[in-house]
């Protein structure tokens, strides 16, 4: 959880311009921006992925060293009414995690570096509040699936040969919030989103008693996205 606070602090910095929007009669920018049935845009951002483990026996936990990755993608938005929009946000997400397995003395056995490049396909519902001057808060959530381009699911090697394997396809649910800011030229929206895998991503070693995967009942991704969208 301590890694979430720098993300929240950074997000709040982007909310500072909202103070300028609390005038009694602000000049409205892009008054017709949300009226078309279809809207398009793109997003840039960063992520921090983690793993959540479920174990068969009460043994020492697997440690995960997380790092920041980046997100980039496109936005397609279909307007339902003033407060509801359906969004499709295909994107490319790159991340890296280093896993430390207990019970080993040799580093090449204890450490597994997991680099993942995901093509993510989320279908989301955006629920917005009423526009207040030139800003509008919103909640967003939905389901997604991703293709892991770095997956070695079909590899014949496993951890006994130094290869940690993950499945190619993963399914998630996503929940988040953000604020739309209407500038003079475009709509800008910083947002924070939690991403939680529904499916087990681990490809287990051939040996059912493997010291790497034998005690793992399920391994699921969870992560945080901080995105900046431009429409």
TrEMBL record:
Annotated signal peptide: 1-20
**Under what name is this protein listed?**
Outer membrane protein beta-barrel domain-containing protein
Taxonomic lineage: Bacteria, Pseudomonadati, Bacteroidota, Flavobacteriia, Flavobacteriales
Question: Which key words are in the record?
Answer: Signal
Q: Which superkingdom heads the taxonomic lineage of this protein's source?
A: Bacteria
Pfam families, per database record: OMP_b-brl_2
- Where is the Outer membrane protein beta-barrel domain positioned along the sequence? 25-201
């Amino acid at each position: 959880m301590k890694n979430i606070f720098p993300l929240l602090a950074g997000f709040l910095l982007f909310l500072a311009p909202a103070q300028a929007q609390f005038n009694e009669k602000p000049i409205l920018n892009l008054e017709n921006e949300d009226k078309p049935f279809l809207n398009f845009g793109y997003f840039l951002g960063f992520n921090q992925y983690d793993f959540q483990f479920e174990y068969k026996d009460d043994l020492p936990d697997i440690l995960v060293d997380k790092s920041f990755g980046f997100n980039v993608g496109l936005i397609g938005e279909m307007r339902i009414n003033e407060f509801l929009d359906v969004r499709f946000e295909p994107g490319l997400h790159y991340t890296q995690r280093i896993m430390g397995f207990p019970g080993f003395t040799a580093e090449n056995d204890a450490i597994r570096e997991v680099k993942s490049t995901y093509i993510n396909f989320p279908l989301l519902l955006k629920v917005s509040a009423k526009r207040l001057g030139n800003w509008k808060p919103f909640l967003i959530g939905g389901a997604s699936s991703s293709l892991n381009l770095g997956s070695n699911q079909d590899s014949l090697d496993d951890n006994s040969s130094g290869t940690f394997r993950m499945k190619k396809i993963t399914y998630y649910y996503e929940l988040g919030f953000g604020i739309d800011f209407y500038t003079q030229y475009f709509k800008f929206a910083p947002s924070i989103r939690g991403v939680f895998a529904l499916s087990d991503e681990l490809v287990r070693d051939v040996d059912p008693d493997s010291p790497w995967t034998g005690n793992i009942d399920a391994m699921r991704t969870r992560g945080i996205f901080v995105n900046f969208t431009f429409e």
